User: Which sequence fits this backbone?
């Protein structure tokens, strides 16, 4: 179901997705479904998920659905203002793209249905210790979590001589904390040494990544939105220091050697189908189980692997 994003659509997305805390009311009594969509930050994976979501609802509802799409640009205050604006406008449904957006959405309303996507772990995001698959509240959606143990296996497979792994992530993202802790536990079980390197914001990435690259043989970075938005800076550091990196998602692999990939377009599309079930079929979001990517694919970055002299097994697919 994966689609290629045309330059025209991408240009429209970039122009239209801006954070604005003082919006005028946009919902009209026109008999249409009004959906407020908040994307945490702009980068390839989240952009694909947003488009998948919009395509799914448009495929099913045509011009009966109206979107108000805004990006928080990684700013918590802007994100909160966007979501509060959607609540004030009495949107029929809110879509939250990424964990930080979901957290703000769940704080803004407990009545308007929320469908999220690009969420690593819903129990963590919603601070629910007993997670059964459905939230029991006004939230459902799709997850972008790929098997972390398989990602650890990729480290051993592609960089077998590595003695120390650096886990680099943003400490402000609960999704990243969850994955980093899981990876640390798995590496401990495997008897592999590791060290955590955290940043509080994107301005700290360059210095922290440089430090990690100097001390570690290989890096692991989870599905971290803050770092993914700065992948070009990270790539320059890692290639210069000749340090390979296993990425938590495909967009971040611009700076890495390999990833266990899912289709963000597909999980966005599935989230759109779930939104349709709520809007048109009257289902309760809290009764709909969170859904996961149906397939994962081992992919590698040919350019970076060649630059670092990494030999890739035949069961890996080259990133385009």
Assistant:
């Amino acid at each position: 179901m994966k689609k290629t994003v045309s330059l025209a659509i991408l240009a429209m997305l970039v122009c239209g997705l801006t954070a604005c805390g003082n919006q005028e009311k946009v919902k009209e009594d026109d008999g249409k479904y009004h959906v407020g969509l908040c994307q945490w930050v702009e980068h390839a994976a989240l952009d694909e998920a947003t488009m998948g979501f919009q395509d799914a609802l448009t495929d099913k509802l045509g011009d009966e659905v109206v979107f108000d799409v805004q990006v928080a640009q990684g700013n918590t205050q802007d994100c909160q203002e966007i979501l509060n604006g959607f609540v004030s406008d009495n949107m029929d449904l809110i879509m939250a793209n990424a964990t930080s957006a979901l957290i703000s959405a769940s704080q803004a309303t407990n009545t308007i249905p929320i469908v999220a996507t690009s969420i690593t772990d819903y129990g963590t995001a919603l601070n629910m210790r007993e997670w059964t698959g459905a939230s029991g509240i006004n939230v459902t959606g799709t997850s972008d979590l790929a098997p972390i143990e398989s990602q650890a296996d990729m480290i051993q497979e592609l960089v077998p001589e590595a003695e120390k792994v650096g886990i680099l992530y943003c400490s402000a993202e609960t999704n990243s904390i969850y994955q980093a802790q899981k990876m640390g536990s798995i590496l401990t079980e495997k008897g592999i040494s590791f060290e955590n390197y955290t940043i509080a914001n994107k301005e700290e990435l360059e210095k922290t990544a440089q430090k990690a690259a100097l001390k570690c043989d290989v890096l692991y970075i989870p599905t971290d939105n803050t770092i993914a938005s700065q992948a070009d800076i990270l790539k320059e550091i890692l290639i210069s220091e000749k340090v390979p990196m296993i990425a938590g998602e495909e967009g971040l692999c611009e700076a890495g050697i390999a990833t266990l990939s899912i289709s963000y377009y597909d999980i966005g599309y599935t989230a759109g189908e779930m939104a349709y079930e709520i809007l048109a079929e009257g289902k309760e979001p809290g009764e709909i189980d969170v859904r996961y990517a149906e397939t994962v694919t081992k992919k590698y970055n040919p350019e970076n692997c060649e630059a670092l002299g990494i030999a890739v097994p035949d069961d890996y697919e080259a990133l385009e």
